[in-house]
Please model this.
Amino acid sequence: MKPYLLLTSALLSAAVAHSFEVRQITFDNRSHDLDNNQNFSRDGEWLIYDTRNPGIGEGRTLEKVHIDTGEVRIIYSPPFIENQGPGVGATSLSPKNDHVVFIHGPWKETGHPYDFTWRRGGLIDFDGKGPFAFADARDITPPYTVGALRGGTHRHEWDGTGQWLGFTYNDEIMKNQGIDLRTIGVTKLGQPVEVKNSDPMKYEGDGEGFSALVVHVVPNPKPGSDEVSRAASDSWVGLKGYKKADGSMQRARAFIGKTVSKSGEEVDEVFIVDIPEDLNQPGELGPLEGADSAYPAPPKGASQRRLTWTDKWKTPGAIGTCWTS
Model:
C-alpha cells in the first residue's frame, strides 16, 4: 500500500504545482461520450465523441468540439434513425491521417436492433465530408468469405501506422449455437474484401480491409493450461510493435485472457499475440473464415503466449488499460 500512497501523493503534488484548469466545453442537455482511446485530433484542438444515451444503440450522431472555442460540428449521422438503431459511437481518430473509425449498428431495413454480433467498424473523414465505408467486411451466409467476419466488432483501435485496426469480436454464427465467446481480431486496411451476393437484410457487405481473428478461444479451458475462454481489454504493443532479438520489429497486441487455474477458478491473465504481416495464410487451427460449427481461426504466424501467472498470488488476476488517450 505504501508505494501506491507515495505515487498518489506525487501525482496530486504535480497537479497542484502546475495549476491544471478544469473547464467544461459542452453545455447542451445530451450525453457526450468519449471513447477510451484516441479522442484528440492530431493538432490537439478538437475532441471527438458520440451522443449515446445511455448506450451505443441509442447513439444518433458523432461530433467534434473545439477545445478553445467550444464550437460543435456533426461529422456523421446515420440515415433512417429509429429508437433501437442503427446506433453509432465509440469514435477513434487515426494518428497518421484524418480518418475516424467507430461502431456502426445495422441499417433500418435489416429489422435487427444494435447488438454485440450486429455491429461493424465504420470509416469517415474527420471533416465529415468524405464518403462513408465499412472497415470490416461481413458475411454470415455459407460459404463464408475469407477476409470477412461473421459477427460484430467493437472498441476499434488504430495502430501507430494508421494502416491496422484492432478490435474485440463476437461471432453471430456461434452465438446462434449457444456459444458466445469474446475474442480479438485485426483489420489490415488497403486490402479490400468483396462479399459476393451479399444480403443487405443480414447487414452483409464489403470492407475496406482484410480481417482475421488472431486469438483462439475455447468454451471450457483446461484447468492449469494457457487456454482462454475470453480475450478482451486489448491494445497495440508500442507504436510499431516490439523489437525482437534479431533487431526486427514485431507487430503485436496485448490482451487479458480468462484462464482456469488448477483449482478450477477463473483468473484473468496478461497475454500477447504476434500479428503476422500477411493475414491471408490459414493457420493450423482451421480456416480463416471459420465453419458452421467453429470460430474463424487465426492466420499462420499469429502466435499467442501468456505473460503472467497470478493464480497463486494473494490477489490473483489482472486488469487491462489502454496506452492511448
Q: What stands out?
A: The CA atoms of residues 76 and 214 lie 30 Å apart. Residues 1-8 have pLDDT under 50 and may be disordered. The radius of gyration is 21 Å.
